[in-house]
Amino acid sequence: MALFLLGVMAGFAGMAMAASDEYIAGYAAGLLEHEFHLSGAVVQVEQGRVAVYAKRLAAEDPAKIVTALKAIPGVVSAEVHTGSAPEGAAGPGVVRATTPTAESKFLPRGLLVDPFHADLRWPHFGASYHSLSSGGREFASAFGESFSVYRDAAPFQGEWELGIQAGVFGVFDTEKRSIDLINADYTFGIVASYRADRLSGFIRIRHQSSHLGDEFLLNNPQVVRINLSYEEIDLKMSYDLTTWLRVYGGVGTIVRKDPSTLGRETTQGGVELKSPWLFFGGKVRPVAYADFQTHARTHWTTGQSIMAGLQFENAQIGDRKLQVLGEYYSGPSPDGQLFTQRVEWIGMGIHLWF
Predict the structure, then answer these.
(1) Which of 43, 92, 263, 308 gives the lowest tally of CB atoms within 10 Å of its CB?
(2) Parallel, antiparallel, or unpaired: how do β-strands 49-54 and 77-82 relate?
(3) Is 12 helix (H, G, I), strand (E, B) or coil?
(4) CB within 8 A of 130, min separation 6: which ones?
């Protein structure tokens, strides 16, 4: 009986502690720091009502943070604001906690610049099935990743980052019994990025080389092999117009090329929309992306990549996402040595982002 009473008292004590404003403030600060990477954010709690003031939200949207905060035991309501906490906001009954300010970090989580999701050569893990307007069928694969090596504070209340990108992109002919490899592109890049509030961007030096599949060459003797290989320097900028609408764009130039007749200049622009509403307990979000590229090597013909579908995510984990997307592309072939050919397809793809 005594043990039972002690257990009941301990349970009530735990519930009281879990519901206390001090507990909520500490829990919320830890969540913002470790899962959403918000530095210098102020958390204010009064009778279970949580208000967060963050200097910037990076790539995260307030709805996702609010969903995570509401899952904390004892939280009655939650709201997120950008900017500094107003002076005198912390009254006598308000508990305040602050996440640590940004410091230099080796191998930090996440990225300062969000991926360009509809860019067919942005390193990630993915697989797509394409139905070509010419009547053929193909399977496209992507294996790669972008990750940060070092991050530190930067002027204008921003952060800078040095990172690496690497990926292999293959396309296969599914109408052949052996599912022949048509082309494989290998890419590696070093990326220097910067972010301050809604503005972000990077400068990158990137190598790409392309190789046609042996079976494809044997079955298509009319195809002339090109030893396509180059290094490109590009500068891209991105701006979050709202928490659900983002635009980006930039230019690049090839500094070493094979063949020597390859055009140098490149341009890229795009728009991304992600629903501010989460469904099924904060696990599903509709998304839509469009990417447009023009290159001197393709005589400035525009390549259009458009994707839309559902993104599956965890409301309490900031940077892991699974996407199931319908896909459309029209323009010069993005597959390395086949860049002189014009292609068009519709398809379906699965993409993983870490």
Answers:
(1) 92
(2) parallel
(3) helix
(4) 137, 138, 139, 140, 327, 329, 345, 346, 347
pTM for the structure as a whole:
0.83
Q: How large is the angle between the packed helices 62-70 and 21-34, nearest 10 degrees? A: 140
Q: Is residue 352 classed as helix, strand or coil in its secondary structure? A: strand
Q: Are 9 and 17 in contact (CB under 8 A)?
A: no
Place of tokens 């400068």: 203
Quote the CA–CA distance of 130 and 139 in Å, as a whole number.
6
pLDDT by residue for the chain (354 residues), tens digit each? 444 444 444 444 444 445 689 999 999 988 888 777 787 889 999 989 999 998 777 556 787 888 889 889 999 999 998 777 776 555 667 888 888 876 678 888 788 999 999 999 999 999 999 999 999 999 999 999 999 999 998 888 788 999 999 999 999 999 988 899 999 999 999 999 999 888 999 999 999 999 999 888 888 888 778 889 999 999 999 999 988 999 999 999 999 999 999 999 999 999 999 998 888 877 899 999 999 999 999 999 999 999 999 999 876 655 689 999 999 999 999 999 899 999 999 999 999 998
Task: State the Cα–Cα distance between residues 134 and 66, nearest whole angstrom.
Answer: 47
Closest of 265, 246, 244, 245 to residue 254, by C-alpha: 265
**What CATH code would you report for 105-353?**
2.40.160.40
What is the SS3 assignment for 68?
helix
d(CA 62, CA 244): 10
Enclosing H/E stretch for 284: strand 284-295
